[in-house]
Design goal:
Blueprint lengths: L1 H10 L1 H71 L3 H8 L5 H44 L13 H8 L3 H11 L14 E3 H18 L13 H7 L5 H17 L2 H23 L22 E3 H9 L2 H4 L6 H7 L2 H15 L2 H4 L1
Helix pairs in contact: 2-4, 2-6, 3-4, 4-6, 4-9, 4-10, 4-11, 4-14, 5-9, 7-10, 10-13
Function: Involved in peroxisome biosynthesis and integrity. Assembles membrane vesicles before the matrix proteins are translocated. As a docking factor for PEX19, is necessary for the import of peroxisomal membrane proteins in the peroxisomes.
Protein name: Peroxisomal biogenesis factor 3
GO molecular function: protein-macromolecule adaptor activity
Length: 357
């Protein structure tokens, strides 16, 4: 019995060897595949966790952006009111001066100017802070990333403070430069009446004049572009100061990009549209008026003398630069194109440089 079995094995030895090798190979291949599958699963899980962490950090950063904009609106309003002080003129008018007409002319120009400046400045503030805080946010994400190749922080606290202080240019020189455009000509009579449609046309003309007469892009009002000024803002040439200048130059590149120009224009369109919506409240026909408010010519149904429109225009800064969330600011903060632009900036600066090459 054993002899016949042995003879059978000898006769089929090659088959047994091949079968054994095949089974062993399949086993080893299976173990290798199982190992690779586990590695892929672990890598995907790690990437998913990293992406979720990155998304959470981005969303948190956007909330910080919104809160920062709201917190800076009082300073923006104060800067505009200080440079375009209409209150002193209204006080003078109450004293019935001899040059009353001249004061009214000045009040007309200042009222329109500061409202237009308020729209421009608020839109610029929203988009500028989106750029700055998402550059900082991207670098902070890299600084706190697991497996970061260097221990040197990309955005230490001192650098962040120096960098973000550059916003003072918008609150100072930026507003001073913007308000040089005098939007309402003196030949417009105070007795002239305007409908809402005519007022909108006037505002559109003012905007066209401002943007057409500017020899530089609107980003010029946001950040000082002189290299010496950038160096002065960075307060010297220490390592932190060099990092600050680097951030400022990166910001300048973003402000000069077509995407920034597009997003700022979207905000300005929305801002002036909201301004006109606010003004429309003062042009509603009286409740007893038989003409329906939804009539096609309703924008021309009510006309007001310019002398009455001036105080309305003059008071718009309280709505435009309100730190209490208003429709004006909320629509800018929640705009989809602003959000998409912010995401692109964050993506650019939160991606390791070796992956960008």
């Amino acid at each position: 019995m054993f002899s016949s079995a042995w003879n059978f094995i000898k006769r089929h030895k090659k088959k047994f060897i091949f079968t054994g090798a095949l089974i062993g190979g399949v086993y080893l291949l299976g173990k290798y595949a199982q190992k690779k599958f586990s590695e892929i699963q672990e890598r995907e899980a790690t990437e998913y966790i990293a992406q979720a962490r990155r998304q959470f950090h981005f969303e948190s950063n956007q909330r910080t952006c919104n809160m920062t904009v709201l917190s800076m609106l009082p300073a923006l309003k104060e800067a505009i009111v200080t440079q375009l002080n209409s209150e002193s003129l209204t006080t003078l008018l109450k004293s019935k001066p001899a040059n009353k007409l001249e004061i009214w002319e000045d009040l007309k120009i200042i009222s329109f100017t500061r409202t237009v400046v308020a729209v421009y400045s608020t839109c610029m503030l929203v988009v500028l802070l989106r750029v700055q805080l998402n550059i900082i946010g991207g670098y902070l994400y890299l600084d706190n990333s697991v497996g970061k190749s260097t221990t040197t922080p990309l955005a230490p606290p001192d650098v962040q403070q120096q960098y973000l202080s550059s916003i003072q240019h918008l609150l100072g020189d930026g507003i001073a430069l913007t308000q040089k455009h005098k939007p309402v000509k003196s030949f417009v009579s105070l007795k002239e009446t305007w409908s809402l449609l005519e007022l909108e046309q006037q505002l559109n003309w003012i905007r066209a004049e401002v943007e057409a007469s500017s020899r530089r892009s609107l980003s010029w009002y946001l950040l000082a572009d002189d290299e010496n000024v950038l160096a002065d803002q960075a307060c010297g040439l220490t390592e932190n100061d060099i990092m600050t200048i680097k951030l400022l130059n990166e910001t300048r590149d973003m402000l000069d990009s077509p995407d920034f120009t597009t997003v700022l224009k979207v905000c300005l369109n929305r801002g002036f549209s909201r301004l006109c919506d606010n003004l429309a409240e003062f042009f509603r026909p009286p409740p007893s008026d038989s003409a329906p408010s939804c009539a096609p010519d309703s924008l021309s149904a009510v006309s007001l003398p310019l002398a009455k429109i001036i105080p309305i225009i003059n008071g718009q800064i309280n709505t435009i630069c309100s730190e209490t969330p208003s429709h004006f600011v909320q629509e800018l903060l929640m705009n989809d194109q602003v959000k998409e632009f912010a995401a692109n900036v964050y993506e650019t600066f939160s991606t390791p440089q070796e992956l960008q090459k």
